[in-house]
Each structure stands twice: as C-alpha cells, then as structure tokens.
Give the backbone structure.
Amino acid sequence: MGDMATIRNIVILTGAGISAESGLRTFRAEDGLWEDHPVEEVATPQGFARDPELVQRFYDERRTGVLAALPNPAHDALARLDRDWDGGLLIVTQNIDDLHERAGASRVLHMHGEALSVWCTACDARHRWEGSLLDGPACPACGAVSMRPDIVWFGEMPYRMEEIFAALADADLFVSIGTSGAVYPAAGFVQQAASHGAHTIELNLERSQGSAFFDESRLGLASELVPAWVAEVLGR
Ligand code: APR
C-alpha cells in the first residue's frame, strides 16, 4: 500500500463479486447470469425491442432478488470507510443492487443504473420502483405505458462518466473489488488512475483480466479482504 499519509482521495470500483456473498449471482462464473440469459437477449436495446416481455421479466427477477438480499461485511466495511474517511471518496459501482446504500454508504455512483429505478421513455422521468414492469404500469408522471428498467445496456453510455474520470484524475488510491475486468469503460479505470499517479489495488476472488495493471492484487473473499483493507486504511 502506498504511503498512507499521502492518501487523500480514494476511488473504489465494485462489481458483482462484492454482492456474491449476499446471494446475488455474478455474470461470468460457471453458474453466472449470462449462462442462462444471453446478454444479447436481455441486456441490449435490440433485445428489448425484439422481446420486451422477456426483458421486463428478467429485470423483474433482478428487482425481487435485490429486495431480498442483505448487505454483507464487505458492504458494511465500505460504509464505515465512507463515514470515517475525511478525504475524498467515490464508490463507483457497476452493480445495480442498492446494497452499498443499505449498508450506509452515501458517496455511491451507479454507472450501470439501478434495479430499483425505472425510466419512462416518453417523458424521461425516473422513478423508484420495487414492483413489476411486466404488467405495463403507467408512468406516475405522464401516464404513458412506456417504462423500462433504468439499466445501462450493452451499447449504451454508462452514467456520469465525466464525474468518474474527474475522480480518477484526482485519485491517490484506486481499489477494484469483485470485478472480472471484462467490460469497458470500467475495466480501463485502473490504467486511468495509474496514469495520474494513483496506487492501485485489486481485491478479488481470483486474478481478473486486469490484474497485471494493478500495483497489488489480493485474492480471497470480499467479506474478508474488504474489512481488512478498510481497517488498514483507517489505521485500525
Ligand atoms: N469475493 C470477491 N470476488 C468475488 C466473489 C467474492 N465472494 N465472488 C466472485 N468474485 C469475483 C469473480 O472472481 C469475478 O472476477 O467477482 C468477479 C465477478 O465478475 P463478473 O461476473 O464479470 O461481474 P462484473 O465484473 O461486475 O461484470 C461487469 O458486466 O455484464 C456486465 O453490466 C454487467 O456490471 C456488469 C459488468
């Protein structure tokens, strides 16, 4: 770990692996979500246009799963860091669950959208939504039956990229947790941060596609690695 005295601004990137121990499936393991739901069918605008019911059902299932899941010690540790770290902190998550927030973190940015948010394509309003979209509810703002999951699908632009790049430019420490490094632009953040002089650490169950870009790679369960790392950063 770099000299802690010089660490002011931290950027953390999380992926499905941080929520695996909360019972939410990851994407690319042998039992991964993409094994029985081809990405093209359920996570692209083309798939939605081709079979909206299939896609609405897929995200209805995600929404139900998120509501039933609980934060695990890794989420709790990042919430503690958010509370106790007086420097800059941004938790950029690729995850669509709200477990970071339910653990108590507030400096969270969902670059791929959120399972519990829906987007009306008629009036552009976004609503918190815990129920189903399969039965075609009307948009609370404009009344149109035109709400889709507020999820960034493949081929769509991730949210708030300017904010993310600005944070990476100022980062002294970049930590990637529970992501395979398979999907850009998130997979390129480590190189972005390193190019601005940040120290980079990967906390993951196994070596990822981006492991070679990190100064440090710690392998193990997020529920063990993250609390230990947060204790290190907070000096206790
Ligand atoms: N602790 C730590 N890491 C874990 C754990 C765990 N308990 N369980 C799994 N992992 C690791 C896996 O080793 C893998 O490297 O988490 C990573 C999960 O990788 P993916 O399933 O590819 O998920 P993710 O990296 O978040 O995918 C990125 O791809 O499909 C799109 O939009 C989707 O946001 C997603 C993006």
About this structure: The first strand starts at residue 9 and ends at 14. The mean pLDDT is 96. The chain has nine helices and nine strands.
